[in-house]
Amino acid sequence: MKEQFTPKIVGFLCNWCSYAGADLAGAAKLKIMPSLTVIRVMCSSRIDPNLVLTTLLLGADGILIAGCHPGDCHYEKGNYYARRRFALLKKVIKTLKIDPERLQLSWVSASEGKRYAEVVNQFTEKIKKLGPNPIQTKPYL
Amino acid sequence: MNNSDILVIGAGVAGIEASLLLADTGKKVYLVEKASLTGGNVIKYEDVFSNMECSTCMIAPKQQEVLQSENIELLTLSTVEKVQGEIGDFTVTINKKARYVSLIDCIGCGMCYEPCPVSLKNEFEQNLSEKKAIYVPCPGSLPNVPAIDPEHCLQLNGKKTCNACVEACAFGAINLSDKDEKIEIKVGAIIVASGFDIIDPAGFPQYGYGKYPNVYTAMEAERLYASNGPTEGEITLRKGDAPPKSIAIIQCVGREQQGYCSSVCCMYSLKLAHYLKHKLPDAKIYNFHSDWCMPGKYYQKFHQDVKEEGVDFIYSPVAKIKVEGNDKSLSIEYYNGKNEKEKLSADMVILSLAMMQGKDTASLSKLLGIEQDTKGFFMNQAIQLGSVDTSKPGIFLAGCAEGPKDIQGSITQAEAAVGKVMSYLS
Amino acid sequence: MSDKIGVYVCECGPNIADKVDIKKILAEISALNEPPEKIIIAKKHKLLCSKEGQDFLADEITKNELTHLVIAACSPRDHDITFMNVCKKTDLNPYLYKLVNIREHCAWIIPDKDEATEKAIQYIRAGISRVTYQAPLTEKELDSIPDVLVIGAGIAGIEASLSLAGENRKVYLVEKTSSIGGKVTRFEKILPHQGTNLDIIQEKIQAVQENENIKVFTETEVEKAIGFFGNFEIILKNIHNEEQKNDFKVGAVVVATGFDLTDPEKIPRYGYGKIEDIYTSMEIEESNSKTGKILLKSGKPPKSAALIHCVGREEKGYCSRVCCNYMFKIAQYLKEKIPAIKITEFYQDLCLPNKADQEFFIDTKNKGVDFIRFKDIAVRQKDKEKFIEYTKMDGKKEKISAEMIILAPAIEPAEGSKDIAELLNISLDETGFFQEAHQKLNPVATSIDGVYIIGSAQNPKDISDSIIDAQAVGGKILTQLIPGVKLVPEVTVSEISDAFCTGCQTCLSVCSYGAIYFDEDRNISIVNEAICRGCGNCVASCPSGAAHAKHFTSAQIYQEVLEAIR
């Protein structure tokens, strides 16, 4: 019998849009799967590639980066940088034999509580289907 | 005596900007707002033109700042009742209506809504949804504290004994014996940022608003699209099961009657067209317009972009457009560019209505002792070549109280009014 | 020294208390106690944000001599500042506290109480791990100079100087031409709803000249501007005499360099420069204000005139906003001087955004001016007669002849905008005008703190709007650069370790605020804390791990990650 897989997902949320969207989802008491743990950063552009790769190598089953919609960045263009780094990271992850689908970038605005819930729940379902991160060793920190 | 405290009337985007700048200098600001929440009209929009930035993301941090500022005393559900004195020494009486919910004790959990037995139309949502007698106008309202409508609350209007919300509140934040208060303050200057209203579509029966359920105002369409709105962003019809397959936006409704162009309708109509194309890619979108008013460096490009999204633009005199039909389908009769009569059908019609002076402009102008212009807005001292001065020293204008304008224009005026206040009071 | 961490769980009434098992949380958190290195005190309270709750916290911090504070309650967007203020009342540095959001992230969204409790414990553990990695931070205070440099002495620059100059604030007004006043002084009249005559402009010019706190430099350019908000070093040079320089310090710089008109010769279909008696609107204004007359080259008054709007609009990709109104004004000049003249105005769209504009249009129309909306238009000459050939909106092609043709060329950014942008490290947008900090919320500021843009340098504007801009910059500077008041920059900014920095300068290229500069001598990048906003983009871009975001360091974030994937 297969044991129920509970993924461990890290969600990096920008303070100004996505974290506010998550707050709105909370205030609306929307049901959200508990696998994702929110980590607040000021801007999606703070998420450095190292952080993403190390988090995956440490065994996270999925990473969600959520920031302001293009054009909405509180710091002018931070989310564009996040988007470019994300595109590159997708490729790098592949070379580590990690399914690039484990990394997702989503735009969630401060008024999109419902969207936040949907994004998290859909991503959680996706990671559940993908199963555990094949890298189970935690090499270093 | 020279008082350096300031009264700001209206907590829309202009009033907020002015208050925050002034509070930064350590001056005490009384920010008086007649509604139960801050943010004015801007918070009703999902996005703002033309960069389509999320409105909440843009303005909520500023609203939060207002609440957290030690120098701003925000008075919601409040109106100015009496103003005496002159620059440097105004005495102002403010009527602060009972909220019945403590801004200090309430934590905004929303547990009180469900037990309330009363349902009524939510005007903030353009009556597209209902609210309880204890309510916040929309999710994300700031301050995130409900108010009670005393006319509809059964306990307060005396129809029944009801204590449901009080019992549901775990924080003892609700006090049904709360009373209206009169507050007297002394300030050195006043900034009037009381905003605008939208002209009543009932005055234009030819477009069928009120007669046919699927004729909407642009503000209703804004709330339909809003992700924190009554349908959580789904474009639905008042009558009909499916989303609309064809939508006609009619611009310049009320322009001729008002005698001025409202300057923002072209842009927000384009925004609506863009919204609708985004949510309903297969729907046919028509836009009936007259001359495009797209002043400035960014706007024409947006027009071009929306055109490329496949919106049908029809240049047609708005006065000769007629909307007819029934509950389910609408027919628009109009004159095309060749002055020939044509007809097309649509499931939904959206009217871009003229902006007009705020409803309380006349009463405010009287009690402030400042003039209105022939259009009804507050009159600026054009002779000064600027537009924030009024006929009375120490009272300044900001935002749409002075005339229709976009957010950028409102913010600039607010900053200019602050500049004037600082020169006078420092 | 051992860490003494206080962990306080807020019941938030029933909001948290009913949805998670606080007793279990407290038990598990208390079990993390590892004296003497790590002492954990875990308690609950019914409402920490209340006055009573805040007093309780302050008391706990002091009584227990806490080194770190973790609060498990609501969103930091609600009460981060509340609890930081509690810390400030005690000896605990507010950056040694962490608010863990177990309401929005657990209690309200996870219906199963056991699951919600587990999740809350996970978040609190992460908070405890993180808080021990946090560092105390303190606000810095910087001296600032209240004086201001204004570049461009047109109407916007003049008004800004008048708004800003005062007893404790000098204004340096720099103009590259030989006189102040700008293009407005070349007009005969101002638009009716903008004051009607030029007296007020002359009064303002005089007020500048008489103001002892405004120092005017004509025929002068800015050679150098280095620094940051509150402290810019400025060097001016005389255009004709490079040796003649002035240097001084200011706290802010206002760019009011105005606009130019597109050269209609570049758009051959209007015939300008080739066919006689085709003028630009500015030429008509100038001749009218100088001679009081509008005449043909032959010296005769024209019997007919065609006024063409929107010249260059298509090429520029934007509407210049002011042309419709001033073309009505020119039509009215002509009608006044030559009552029998036949005037036709050709336009694409009438742009009348001010509340008084439409009335002025109707007034002009009622004076007998014809208006034709065109799709395409061209000017041709045949046997000394000039024809305007146009396609109407219905596709019909027509033509009329006119003795005089007046063009309204598009407004474009002033020549030299690019140089000024480079000098001040600010940007131009795709139209070539200066780029504002935020299109909606911050239109007179730029991405560089302390550098402002006003008038038509930012966007085509009429006189009234330019003046409003100038007053707005007054509002900004007078509230933010107060004589004798120190500036307090953001605390949670980036820093770059000089030991690790390799001098690659990647960070300089990603910073939106120009907050990082390169020290050539030491070959390292340095963050100017007075400018940095703390987004952390430089941190993510740094290939050598030299950049750190204070309060959002990688070490701090990893602590949260480790708990998330435990």
Word description of this protein:
The complex is a heterotrimer of chains A (141), B (426) and C (566). The model of chain A has no long low-confidence stretch (mean pLDDT 92). In chain A, helix 1 packs across helix 4. Chain A starts with 8 loop residues before the first strand and ends in an 11-residue tail after the last helix. The longest helix of chain A is centred in the middle third of the chain and has 18 residues. Chain A has one domain: Rossmann fold (3-Layer(aba) Sandwich), CATH 3.40.50. Helices cover 39% and strands 16% of the residues of chain A. With 141 residues, chain A is an alpha/beta fold. Chain A has a four-stranded parallel beta sheet, sandwiched between helices. Chain B has two domains: 180 residues, 3-Layer(bba) Sandwich (FAD/NAD(P)-binding domain); 154 residues, FAD/NAD(P)-binding domain (3-Layer(bba) Sandwich), CATH 3.50.50. Chain B is 22% helix and 25% strand. In chain B, the strands form eight sheets. A five-stranded parallel beta sheet of chain B has the order 5-2-1-13-24, with helices on one face. A five-stranded parallel beta sheet of chain B has the order 15-22-16-17-18. In chain B, helix 1 packs across helix 2, helix 1 runs parallel beside helix 9 and helix 6 packs parallel to helix 7. In chain C, the strands form seven sheets. A seven-stranded mixed beta sheet of chain C has the order 13-19-14-15-16-17-18. Chain C is elongated. Chain C starts with a strand and ends with a helix. At the A-B interface, helix 1 and helix 4 of A face strand 4 and helix 2 of B.
